[in-house]
Amino acid sequence: MNSVEQVPTVPIYGLPVSRLGMEDTVKYLTEHLKQEHRQPLQIITANPIMIMKALEEPDYMQVMRNAELLVPDGTGVVWAAARTDKPVQERVAGFDLLHELMRVGEDYHWKVYLLGSTPEVIQAAAERLHLQYPGVEISGFRDGFFGADQDAEVIAGIRAAAPDILFVARGADTQEPWIARYKEQLGVPLMMGVGGSFDVISGKSKRAPKLFQQMRAEWLYRLLREPTRAARMLALPKFALKVMRDKENMSKPR
User: Fold this and answer.
1) Sign of dihedral through CA atoms 222, 73, 45, 94?
2) Distance separating alpha carbons of residues 15 and 62, to the nearest angstrom
3) Residues 94, 192: contact at Cβ < 8 Å?
4) Which of 16, 165, 166, 192 has the least C-beta neighbours within 10 A?
5) Phi and psi at residue 10, to the nearest 5°
6) What pairing do the DSSP bridges indicate for beta strands 15-18 and 190-193?
């Protein structure tokens, strides 16, 4: 059974986005991890850029549709859902969800594997997470610089570590498809792409200040710090215009 069937969702361009807030999302995932027979579950932290990519690329749309849980990470997704009769409770940011799972994981002594970023960043992130959440076992980590010819080796390493949770940071264009492609082979009960989270955790980069977070403008902070992201960020106004133009058609089954 697809786990997302147990979660209230709102359809946004054919994608079933979870309506649960952070607390209920963590409770749901905790219950999943407490089951005796745990099926692999992929979480995708959906934002407008990813949804626009899915609308333009059928393969990416299939990856998102096949994920067991899509959480409303982007503010734009929360805004779009509010224009339907099924609004979401709140934004569920991937960075915060990672930390909430680590926090709860201390009570259950979960095992976590970290995959992605550079060798220096992933090692620093592993060390900092171990210090911050000593009750969680960092069962392994590896940088994200490997090609398709090394996938089998990477998968074998993760399986040997037998984690409860796998966090993957290889960029939105590759991390979600990679998890989807090898979900069954990996056999990890919980898998989530976390983008640049390891960079922040390691201290390499900073998260947007509280003011930007409260203004729901973390995207603007990232753009100011990394102007090269401008082309990618164009998807944000495109998404907003599309939602306004499509109105109720946005949430119709596809």
Assistant:
1) positive
2) 10
3) yes
4) 16
5) -125, 130
6) unpaired
Structure tokens at 196: 């640049």
State the Cα–Cα distance between residues 71 and 233, nearest whole angstrom: 20
Q: Which two tokens stand for residue 19?
A: 């309506």
CA separation for the pair 53, 119 (Å, rounded) = 29
The 3-state secondary structure of 97-114, one letter per residue = HHHHHHHHHHHHCCEEEE
pLDDT in tens, 69-95: 999 998 999 999 999 999 999 999 999
Q: What is the DSSP string of 120-136?
A: HHHHHHHHHHHHH-TTS
Query: Which three-class secondary structure state does DSSP give residue 141?
Result: strand
pTM: 0.89
How far is the C-alpha of 60 from the C-alpha of 225, rounded, in Å? 28
Please check whether residue 188 is in contact with residue 158, taking contact to mean a CB–CB distance below 8 angstroms: yes
Q: What is the pLDDT of residues 112-137, one digit of tens each?
A: 999 999 999 999 999 999 999 999 99
- Say if residues 42 and 48 touch (Cβ distance below 8 Å): no
